[in-house]
Amino acid sequence: MELPPASSPRPPTTVRRNPPRRAKQTPLATAPGPSSLSSAAGGITPFPLDDILQPDPPQMPPPVSKSPEAKSADSSENLKVFLRIRPLEIGPRPSRKPCGSKAKPRGKCASPKGGKSKKKSSCLAVNDSHSVTLSAQPSLLDSKRTKSEVYDGFSFVFPQDSLQQEVYEKVMNPLVLDLMEGKNALLVAMGPTGSGKTHTMFGCPRDPGMLPLALRQIFSHATGNGDPHSSRSYYLSMFEIYSERGKGERILDLSPNGIDLSLQQSTMKGLQEVMVSSLAEAESLVACGMLKRATATTNSNYQSSRSQCIINIRAAHKNVDDEHRFPPNNAVLTIADLAGAERERKTGNQGARLSESNFINNTSMVFGLCLRSLLEHQKNRKKPLHKHFKNSLILTVKPGEEDYADASFLLRQASPYMKIKFNNLEELANLHGQKRTTTSLIRVEHHKRMKIDHSEASLVDVGKVDTDANDENQMSKKEVNSKKLQESTIPHVFHISPISHERAHVGVQCNEEVSVELQKIKRNEEVMRNFAKALWNVLKQYKQKLEDSEREAGNLKEALRKEMAKTMELNKELKKLSTCCSFHRHPFPEEIFCSDVDAPYEYCAAGPFKPLSTTDDLTNCDALLDDNTPPEIGGQIHINMPAVVLAHEDFTELPEFGLEMDSSNSNPTSLDIKTANRDSSSSISCSIVDDRTICSSSKEMPTQQKEDKKMQTSDTAELSISPGDVKKLSYEKDKGFQEKANRTGDKEQLKNIDVREISYPEGSTDSLVNTKQTCLTADHVKITLSSSNVQKALVEEKNACSSPVKYSDSMCSSLSINKDAKMQAHKILYHKPESFQEQKQDHEDLQGKEDGPTELSCKPGPEEMHSSPEIHSQTHDHIKEGKDIFPSVSQQSQASYALSVRDMKTSNKCQLAKNLKEEKFDSISKPKVAVKHKRRLMPASAMLLREFAGLDMEINKPKESSDRLNADEKGRSDGSISLFRLLQSNLQH
Ligand SMILES: Nc1ncnc2c1ncn2[C@@H]1O[C@H](COP(=O)(O)OP(=O)(O)OP(=O)(O)O)[C@@H](O)[C@H]1O
Q1: Which atom of ligand 1 is the closest one to the Cα of 298?
Q2: Ligand 1 atom showing the smallest separation from residue 295 Cα
Q3: CA–centroid distance, residue 193 to ligand 1 (Å)
Q4: What angle do CA 185, 190, 195 make, to 5 degrees?
Q5: Rounded mean pLDDT of 534-560?
Q6: Which CATH topology does 118-421 take?
Q7: Rounded to 5°, angle at Cα 823 from 819 and 825
Q8: Average pLDDT rounded to a whole number, residues 451-472
Q9: ipTM field
Q10: Cβ contacts of 69 within 8 Å, gap of 6 or more
Q11: Of 198, 200, 397, best ligand 1 pocket probe by most atoms within 8 Å of the beta carbon
Q12: Ligand 1 centroid to 247 CA: how many Å?
């Protein structure tokens, strides 16, 4: 090997390399695992995919598990490209021998070391065994060629001093071995003319080339005793493709009796194969063919080949039986010596020779195009490039400076060929053959399996397996069957093993494959079993959850049913309450308080002037309407309702109101009727004094309200009973009660209502009493103050009446003194008919004092009169102090109507609501009723307090003298006198 001179400057170098490609990472490497896909539902454990897939897949033996494509990938190899550099100096050219024009001179085989020639510089330097550097000589360097080129990737680079044997060992020997093993092989020599192609392929007797050396190797093995190769026959054929004087392409059989050939569908028709049984026959045949090959002398090559020469050596079995013992395919070793590309400038060919040169160049170019097409074809991965033989290409170049262009052209052309990859179809063919054998074995095994499983076919048949059967038993049976199959398969495979070593190898592979298949089946079964278990567990969890949900739904339905029942009851109560509270839309004081003196309690019995909507309202109404549940002492029920503002001028139109009291107190002495609203409070206090009941009315108004005398009619209107709304009630013994509510005008002082003027026509009382449709029990006493100044009282003895008294007009209230307190309470205000007779005279005496301070004086019977000065004084203290005895009411935003019953320890039932009818309030709610507000001044308590100041002086005076005194003159009213007497009577008792 010659290296470039160190002294010569090396031009810039362009490196042409084929760097190895790195495989890209597959997207699956970063794909999420299957466990991430499983999401746990609420309360349900996630599906255990990992557990299901826990069994590791069986490890496939590499040679068996790989697909044919993978195997082909492994067996793929690049086209082997060798580079042989011809020596710069060859021996002197011997003189021509007259053996014919085509005879090659012996001098072509002269050793390059033998001749003496001028040392030339080389354009090609060997870097290593796989790369060379091509450099142009300095004289040829110009602006365009200033670079050296490095060609890398060669299978091997043979330097100039390489020997034929070295080339044979690396290039030809593997192919020959493949041939003798029944594999095809190809070796092509390619290079410019005179580069040593023919020398490399054929050589000379002293330095034989690849073909003679191959024949020697082949026949050296064929003659060995006991060698299997001795049973083969080798056939040799030679032909050339040439152009006769440049007119056309011809194919000539180079065998001794060879004729022109024709190409028919890749088959060389007429080609003779000469069986060679010895090396000598083969060499002789080759020598004869070389003599027939067309050669010519050119300026580049003394004996230049003018055709493409192809030699085939086919190895075949001698006996037909041997085809069963050896691989069935015949191997062919092909050796091609191409004609070298020529440059007209170098060769100096003219005429027919020039045409011949064009043909040679064209065929060389076609060969290059074929290789390029293979290179392009391998880019199509769907159609990989296969080969049926090992392909090797040996390039021969001349390293002379003048050969730079040819060498550069060749290396440029052939460098891509090193990228050509072939899939060795022979290995695939063998694998397919093994696979076919394996398949046949599997078929045999399958047949045996059918025999084995015949008795249990019903169990193996998956399609007929009963799903309700025990899976584990079936699995165990399947495992047993699999074991039987495995046990029965292995001896069968070994049974065929004595046939041959290779087939035994195939049988072992088959056995391994069957084992792998069995492992696959087992794994699949285990995976399916785990899957079934996991699915069963998940289904059980869902079932449990579903049962829980159904149970909870049942509980909810039950609760809903109960709630609906309660709702229905509440609706009934509401309807009942709505029915009884039928005077909504009417303005009326909203609250009535019933209190006891000793244990004051407030009990509201106001009617539902508006629909009740709140639970409190319902509760209040329930307590109100429930006779069996007396109100709690100190309890308080408020029913809000719109109010109406009444002026004292309109007091004559004051609607009827009644007080219904249900008291067990045996000694009621007084009662207070109190109205309260946000702006003012009014009260009517009735007390028993001697044999009379004195009622007083008072009104407290704020300053602003006092200044604003205009009444309003609205939802927040108020009912006020002013001191001027003095009622004179008269009692007629035989005619019952009659109220004459005479308005006395605005007065700034406490006004009492005298009951002397109450008249009740005879017959009316009876009719009322006898008319049981109206109301209440016999113990009930009702007082009705009507706007028509007619007071109707109803006294019922024993029989209860549930329906309220229906009064003729306007708003009404009722006071009922019931049950245990009946005889006492109602006599506070009213007397029974027999009592009325006794008190008639007193009333008549009082009738003449209408002009004086009005008092409401009811004359109860002596036995029922129980005055309570302490209580009365207490009440008056409240009034005097200006306190609201029902402070909780006075601050209400809406008007309220307070009814206070003192000295009643048991429940009072205020059925004001029942006694009020909706239509009776229509007139009140009209604007004409809600007139302007009048100023209310001193409350009745103040008046009473003033009058009580002088009672101590008058207490012992005769009745007639005191009664005859003018109230104004004495400084006290009749009411005070009556109250004083009541107190006196109580003290006496
Ligand atoms: N490695 C070598 N050692 C000694 N001599 C060689 C070597 N290679 C080639 N030669 C000599 O070079 C000359 C040309 O060789 P050869 O005829 O083999 O070239 P070629 O490539 O076949 O040319 P062509 O394509 O025109 O036939 C021959 O005389 C041959 O002996």
Answers
A1: 26
A2: 27
A3: 8
A4: 135
A5: 91
A6: Kinesin (3.40.850)
A7: 85
A8: 41
A9: 0.97
A10: 384
A11: 198
A12: 27
